[in-house]
Amino acid sequence: MKYIEDAFLDKSGEKRAANGSSGQEVDIPSISGYLQAAPSEGTSKGSASKPKRPNKRFRKTELSAPRPRKTKKPVKPTVVDDELKAVWESLPKNLHFLLSFFDDSVTGNYYRGEFKESRETLIRRLLDPELNLEEASRLLGVCPATVRRYTNRGWLSHHRTKGGQRRFRLRDIVRFVEEHGRLPEE
Fold first, then answer.
1. I need a labelling partner for 70 at 20 to 30 A (CA). Which of 15, 29, 57, 131 fits?
2. Helix, strand or coil for residue 169?
């Protein structure tokens, strides 16, 4: 510890007093004197060269051209292809047919016990699925934080699971897009 304390004490004044030169002021050159003298000493080869830059990555000392911008990726075609469009257009007719002409009486003969859910509940679950946050954000084309913002503002209906996670119904997402568009204004 003593050597650290001695570093901060002015021991040179005591040495000068011992030598008898305590009254004289010593001319101490400034750092600019050293910087101006250094290039002249280093140019013994006769050519003026630039001083070496310190090898520090975080300090930018000269201007340079910016990096070229990344090219935009080509836009992917829409998700709805011809086959999916045909299924979508025939969906109302097929649903009407499934709801009105079939029931569980024949299927019930081949399974023991009761079904977990009724036929109507099964069709409702398939038509209006429960979506998690990732699926909702993918359908809306926004980041999950934006979907959370929509729910916090009351624009997008949701419910929470026992674990506190947000769940969305497809009908609520469709209603949100019809009312607000994909990117609503505040």
1. 57
2. strand
